[in-house]
Structure formats: structure tokens, C-alpha cells
């Protein structure tokens, strides 16, 4: 499967991530882009917590703690996006677990902030659906057997 003709027969994706010889399908781009957007949103939220903490008095410690937590989540989501692009076996369950948390969050805020809840819900569903697109599932299956 690692001959040059087999590689050129695959029409899409990145060439041979991390040596397992399976190109990343273009369909994975949906997952990676949405995970990247989510990571950036987490970083933006962390920055807003830090800015708010400057004049928050006693709440500053809690806001800094939230900022640190959001930065840790952002690093994890960014790593999952990179791992998903490289078809690492750990990236898919990590990203799916995060998206399940995002869905729970979406339903908890949808009554107070409809647009935030819908944005979270739509992005989470996009990532989950992206991981189960046939080309993505096939690429992961081939990467796991190599």
C-alpha cells in the first residue's frame, strides 16, 4: 500500500502524515477548521476574562482561574485538531468527548443566549458529523491498520 502508484491514486488530502502512509482526506478539513475556530474562541474568551479581571476586585482570582482553564481547553482542542489532521488515533475520541461537552453547554445556555447556544450546537454537530463522513472513517481505519 505504500507504493508510489497507490499514493497518487488517492485524490485528496495531505501526503502521509506521521509515517503511517495514509493521506488525510479533504473531508477532514471540515473537522480541523471547526476545531481551530473553537480553539480560537476559547483563547478569545480567556483573553476577555483576563481583561475583565483587571478591574474585578475579589472576582479577579476566579476570572484568572477561568482564563487558565479556557487556555488549557484551547491547547487540547488545538492538539486534537492537529492530531485529527494527522489521523492520530487519540484525536478522534478526544475531539468527540469535547464536542459532547460543547453540546451540553449549548443546551444549558440556549435559553439565555440563543445565538451562543446555536453556534455551539452547530459547530459541535459539524465536527461530529465530519468525523463520521465515509472518507474520514475509511482513512482512520486504514491508518489504524498500518
UniProtKB/TrEMBL annotation:
UniProt keyword terms in alphabetical order: Membrane, Transmembrane, Transmembrane helix
Q: Where is the stretch described as Disordered?
A: 1-21
Does the keyword Transmembrane helix feature in the UniProt annotation? yes
Q: Which residues cross the membrane?
A: 29-54, 60-81, 93-110, 116-137
UniProt name for this protein = Histidine kinase
Amino acid at each position: 500500500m505504500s507504493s508510489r502508484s497507490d499514493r497518487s491514486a488517492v485524490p485528496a488530502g495531505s501526503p502521509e502524515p506521521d509515517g503511517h502512509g495514509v493521506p488525510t482526506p479533504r473531508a477532514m478539513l471540515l473537522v480541523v477548521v471547526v476545531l481551530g475556530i473553537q480553539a480560537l474562541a476559547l483563547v478569545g474568551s480567556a483573553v476577555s476574562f483576563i481583561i475583565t479581571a483587571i478591574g474585578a476586585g475579589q472576582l479577579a482570582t476566579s476570572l484568572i482561574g477561568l482564563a487558565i482553564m479556557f487556555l488549557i481547553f484551547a491547547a487540547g482542542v488545538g492538539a486534537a485538531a492537529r492530531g485529527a489532521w494527522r489521523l492520530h488515533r487519540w484525536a478522534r475520541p478526544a475531539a468527540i468527548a469535547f464536542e459532547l461537552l460543547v453540546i451540553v453547554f449549548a443546551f444549558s445556555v440556549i435559553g439565555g443566549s440563543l445565538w451562543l447556544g446555536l453556534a455551539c450546537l452547530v459547530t459541535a454537530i459539524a465536527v461530529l458529523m465530519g468525523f463520521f463522513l465515509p472518507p474520514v472513517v475509511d482513512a482512520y481505519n486504514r491508518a489504524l491498520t498500518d
